[in-house]
Amino acid sequence: MDKALRVQLATMGTEVRAAAIPDAGKQAALWCLGQLPPLYAKFRLTSESRYVDEIARLVQGVLKELADDTTPCPPARRLAASIPVRLQRLHEKFGLPGLNIKLPGASPRRVRTPM
């Protein structure tokens, strides 16, 4: 599992580096990805759900940076959409709990009703 996980995270890191997003967002997303390997290792050793919760929080941070509304970049949004799917497949392959990650998107619009 360690090698497959490292390869998958390294690939995601390369894709984030290539994304057309602001440098600050890139650095934040890369930092989040860099925190994942030790968390996966800790979870594997202890099976404590707090590590899965932290993994999900960090992945959510990566997605937020890639799908930032201030810099519309369709390839970055596609990457953001693919990351949860790829991680979920990895989790299923190794029998890890699901991440329950939501893609950041536009806030739902409120419909105003006339009074």
Helix-strand pattern: HHHH
- Please give the domain count: 1
Unreliable sequence segments: 106-110
The whole-number mean of residue pLDDT values reads 83
Topology, number of strands: 0
**What is the approximate shape?**
elongated
N/C terminus separation:
59 Å
Strand content: under 5%
Q: Please count the helical segments.
A: 4
User: Rounded to an integer, what's the Rg over CA atoms?
Assistant: 16 Å
Summarize this structure briefly.
The chain is 69% helix and 0% strand. It has 115 residues and is mainly α.
Explain the overall architecture.
It is elongated and about 40 Å long. With 115 residues, the chain is mostly helical. Helix content is 69%, strand content 0%. It is built from 4 helices and no strands. It has one domain (2-93). α1 runs antiparallel to α4, α2 runs antiparallel to α3 (49-66) and α3 (49-66) packs antiparallel against α4 (74-93). It has helices spanning 2-18, 23-46, 49-66, 74-93.
Task: Map the helices and strands.
Elements: H1 2-18, H2 23-46, H3 49-66, H4 74-93
Helix pairs in contact: 1-2, 1-4, 2-3, 3-4
Name a few traits of the molecule.
115 residues, mainly alpha, 4 helices, 0% strand, elongated
